[in-house]
Here is the input.
Amino acid sequence: MIKTPAKALALVKRAGLVTLAARIEGVPCFVEEVVGEPVRGSWWGHPKGKLIFSLAEGLEDSGEVLTLKLFGKATFMHRALWPVWLAVVLDEGWREARGRALGAAARALWKKVERASLRGEAPAPVKALEASLLVHVASEHTEKGRHEKRLTSWGHWAKAQQVSPAVLDLDAALEKLKRAARGAATGL
Here is the structure.
């Protein structure tokens, strides 16, 4: 069982990809690793819910972990995979194909996010962009105490994190991520 931030980070570093609560065959589930067994229902109501939340926030704040919805659910990705991730999400062909699948509102929002990070946008296009994986989406506490999603282009995110894409073609990068996901279907 995981009880400390150091052990939480060690799990993500060792596994590369860890879901927060989703059960994906072959991919560690953070909630189950903290609790020591499967959790029925929402982990928020579990006696270790506050510990889970605290450790998960610590991962997000560590500078070593990216949180995204790779499997359609919250997933932690260790920094070691970021260059491979960026090789995919910054690939022009991949981006164009993804962009064509967006509705008009999400596509317009995506174009705005490519110019500047945004917060407080309409929920439906934000959700579509988050699912598309075309932008980095993070939850932020507002000045009024609410949570809003901050959308940032992957290019701006990479620059802020001081990480460059791996020098791989798209197929090789996708294959590396597939191996990291232990063959589980991702949103890619």
